[in-house]
């Protein structure tokens, strides 16, 4: 089963562009997102246009303890909105730009990708580098899966049994760097602890069945 994650979603817009069309696209995106398994979505339903709206959205999403933020540029927006969101939420961000709509004789309708360029520049220069970019009308599920992995590492215990063989330096781990990068704390166990650990047969069977459901173990015998 995939790791469950909690994802905040917001769509930014500016009324000097076709924000009504952006809102329709956002509606379709929200429907599609809810079909993705093992994600608890915290969605700001209305377009975020003004600074106070961004601040309110940020406080709401932060109170929900989201793991990450998906920030859709429904249209081009000025750079202060993403900074207001990041100022409070302070989580990894997916900057999502929409494909441009067909030309209808007026000005460019969304200009979403230009807004993405502005947001990435502002975040980078502000020292914020934990963001990724996707362009299109579908979320990057590889990014979501990467977030699942990070969540699984940071919320579960990692154990090392015994110690590396003498001279096998490359098999060691830098525990503080692991904690810095992934939030992982490593627990060490001696072999006698493992051999003498009392196990519950039902839990062992449950774990075996879980492994069989995930991996191809057809080449492994009972021996």
UniProtKB/TrEMBL annotation:
Recorded GO MF terms: intramolecular oxidoreductase activity, interconverting aldoses and ketoses
Keyword terms: Carbohydrate metabolism, Isomerase
One Gene Ontology biological process: monosaccharide metabolic process
Name of the protein described by the UniProt record: Fucose isomerase
Database matches in InterPro entries: Fucose_isomerase_N/cen_sf
A cellular component term, taken from the record's GO annotations: cytoplasm
Keyword Isomerase part of the UniProt annotation: yes
């Amino acid at each position: 089963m995939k790791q469950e994650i909690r994802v905040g979603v917001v769509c930014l817009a500016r009324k000097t562009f076709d924000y009504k069309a952006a809102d329709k696209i956002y509606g379709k995106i929200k429907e599609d997102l809810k079909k993705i398994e093992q994600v608890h979505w915290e969605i700001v339903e209305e377009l975020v246009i003004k600074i106070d709206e961004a601040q309110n959205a940020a406080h709401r999403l932060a109170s929900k303890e989201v793991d990450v933020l998906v920030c859709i540029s429904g249209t081009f927006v000025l750079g202060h909105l993403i900074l207001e969101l990041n100022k409070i939420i302070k989580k990894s961000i997916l900057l999502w730009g929409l494909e441009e709509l067909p030309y209808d004789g007026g000005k460019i309708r969304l200009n979403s990708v230009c807004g993405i360029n502005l947001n990435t520049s502002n975040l980078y220069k502000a020292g914020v580098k934990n963001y990724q970019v996707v362009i299109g009308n579908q979320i990057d599920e590889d990014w979501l899966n990467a977030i699942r992995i990070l969540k699984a590492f940071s919320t579960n215990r990692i154990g090392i049994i015994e110690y590396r063989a003498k001279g096998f330096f490359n098999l060691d781990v830098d525990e503080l760097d692991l904690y810095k990068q992934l939030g992982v704390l490593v627990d060490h166990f001696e072999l006698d602890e493992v051999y003498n650990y009392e196990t519950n047969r039902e839990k062992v069977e449950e774990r075996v069945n879980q492994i069989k459901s995930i991996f191809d173990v057809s080449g492994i015998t009972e021996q």
